[in-house]
Specification:
By secondary structure, the chain is α+β, with helices and mostly antiparallel strands. The protein folds into five domains: 4-100, Uridine Diphospho-n-acetylenolpyruvylglucosamine Reductase, domain 2 (2-Layer Sandwich), CATH 3.30.43; 103-222, 2-Layer Sandwich (Uridine Diphospho-n-acetylenolpyruvylglucosamine Reductase, domain 3), CATH 3.30.465.10; 226-318, Alpha-Beta Plaits (2-Layer Sandwich), CATH 3.30.70.3450; 325-424, 2-Layer Sandwich (GMP Synthetase, Chain A, domain 3); 427-465, Vanillyl-alcohol Oxidase, Chain A, domain 4. The protein contains 17 helices and 18 strands. It has helices spanning 4-13, 22-27, 34-40, 58-71, 123-131, 149-154, 162-165, 168-171, 200-203, 237-249, 262-268, 285-301, 310-318, 325-329, 344-358, 395-412, 431-450, and strands at 18-19, 51-53, 75-78, 95-98, 105-109, 114-118, 135-136, 172-178, 184-187, 212-219, 221-222, 226-234, 256-260, 275-283, 334-343, 364-371, 374-375, 378-387. Strands 12, 13, 14, 15, 16, 17 and 18 form a seven-stranded antiparallel sheet that branches. A five-stranded antiparallel sheet has the order 5-6-10-8-9. Strand 8 (172-178) and strand 9 (184-187) form a beta hairpin. Helix 1 (4-13) runs antiparallel to helix 4 and helix 15 (344-358) runs antiparallel to helix 16 (395-412). The longest helix is centred in the last third of the chain and has 20 residues, at 431-450.
């Protein structure tokens, strides 16, 4: 089937870059959000887009956006499809802009510790390219093997080693993007600049609503000289939180600091009976040795005895293994992880409130949490739920009820409703609570200024007025 916009795109880009084959359209209908997979089994699966465009250059992206903007045609940017909050759901009048063909390594600069990539470059492949020169990006999301550099920026992603290496905003040197009208911009210059607002932050976290990321330059690190592992058992979550706070506020920065509640600790290793804290220490050998000794002393002071270090080795080996949604949906269950954050004096209240509330949902089989990213002023929590509703017809309702309870519990105690997965559709209607009325109005003003025709990824990030 052809339409005027499809014909125009084929004329501008060539027929091989504009796909309308039903099988190819089906592959790009949505991302990895559980609700989309659940709906695929029912009466409301995501529709096919009008076409999939696979640009090979910045000029191709510019031509696509100019045509779409002139005609008011929606454009849905698509990285590698690993998003989990409904950031991508196709619609029959939309162009699905598949960035995976833009995957070049542009340069690796070991003097200035910089590396440039096309936005569609696979994260694990980008890391392998710099690792061959003894360097690291230092960004290890669970999705590293199935996500792209552009996707990391679009969602303000965080990696498992963030406590020392930082989140994506700490790793990005510069961003290249095409705005909805086809204008090309490069945002960011030098190791730091005092040149007005940092415009990189307009694109970071914008989830495809303000333009299309086409390239990124990362600030690298040298590969660490040494690594050590440690683990401790805290008698309860509060003790563990306090231990983590003492470690990071004393100036130590283990790249990985993860704390699991009792349920998740038992699931991690059957030998565990309390709340385990896992740590990975990396860097110069002398620094690693000093950090391991200092952390052990702080743990002893907190009466958190050592746990077997092989638990950390097991986590490192299996940390990116997750069951497919179909394995859960086949059992008429819904499940998900929901990440939030809060300051130190609020985080335990968030944990207790959310887990207690989740357990009240009919059919709740699991309600637990762990922390995975630590800061001087607080940390995040990753909640996990699994629900077997008494009536399978209630699966989607139960899913959203679990999300509501977690986000409302977080909001009651002044926490942030998202740490690193982004907003998508799962959190969109909570954005007023997150930003306040003034902040949400400002976001809408920016959206209207950059995308007056509203073509960029409609339905994501910004709630309906």
């Amino acid at each position: 089937m052809t339409t005027p916009i499809v014909d125009a795109l084929r004329g501008a880009l060539g027929p091989d870059q504009v796909l309308t084959d039903p099988a190819r359209l089906d592959e790009r209908r949505h991302d990895y959000w559980m609700v989309s997979h659940l709906r695929d089994r029912g009466a409301t699966p995501a529709p096919r887009p009008a076409c999939v465009v696979r640009p090979r250059s910045v000029a191709d992206v510019q031509a696509t956006l100019r045509l779409a903007n002139e005609r008011g045609t929606p454009v849905i940017p698509f990285g590698l499809g690993s998003g989990v909050v409904g950031g991508v759901i196709a619609r029959p009048d939309a162009i699905l802009l598949d960035m995976s063909a833009m995957s070049a390594v542009r340069f690796i600069d070991p003097v200035n510790l910089l590396a440039g990539f096309d936005a569609g470059r696979n994260g694990a492949e980008a890391e392998a390219a710099v690792a061959a020169q003894g360097l690291t990006i230092g960004h290890w999301p669970q999705s590293v093997a199935i996500s792209s550099g552009g996707g990391w920026i679009a969602t303000r992603a965080s990696g498992q080693f963030s406590t020392a290496y930082g989140n994506i905003e700490d790793i990005v040197h510069s961003i290249e993007a095409v705005l909805p009208n086809g204008e090309f911009v490069v945002l960011g210059k030098g190791p730091r600049a005092s040149a007005g607002p940092d415009l990189r932050n307009l694109i970071m976290g914008s989830e495809g609503t303000l333009g299309v990321i086409t390239g990124v330059t990362f600030s690298l690190r040298r590969a660490p000289e040494a690594r050590a592992l440690s683990a401790f058992e805290a008698p309860d979550m509060v003790t563990g939180f306090e231990l983590q706070r003492e470690i990071v506020q004393s100036g130590w920065r283990p790249p990985v600091m993860r704390q699991y509640d009792e349920r998740e600790s038992r699931r991690l290793d059957g030998r565990l009976t309390k709340c385990v804290i896992l740590m990975v220490h990396e860097g110069p050998k002398a620094l690693v040795e000093a950090e391991v000794a200092a952390v052990a002393a702080l743990a002893a002071k907190a009466e958190a005895p050592p746990a077997p270090a092989d638990i950390v080795e097991h986590w490192l080996d299996h940390r990116n293994n997750v069951p497919p949604w179909d394995a859960i949906l086949d059992r008429n269950m819904v499940a998900d992880t929901v990440e939030v954050s809060a300051d130190w004096d609020r985080i335990n209240s968030v944990y207790v409130d959310a887990v207690t509330s989740l357990k009240e949902i009919p059919g709740c089989l699991a309600a637990s949490a762990h922390s995975s990213h630590v800061y001087r002023s607080g940390l995040n929590l990753y909640f996990t739920f699994a629900i077997l509703p008494p009536d399978p017809a209630d699966m989607e309702r139960a899913y959203f009820e679990a999300w509501r309870r977690i986000l409302e519990a977080t909001g009651r105690h002044g926490g942030s409703l998202s740490h690193h997965h982004g907003i998508g559709r799962a959190r969109r209607d909570y954005m007023k609570r997150e930003l306040g009325a003034g902040g949400l109005a400002l976001l809408r003003t920016i959206k209207r200024a950059l995308d007056p025709n509203g073509i960029m990824n409609p339905g994501v990030l910004i709630p309906d007025a």
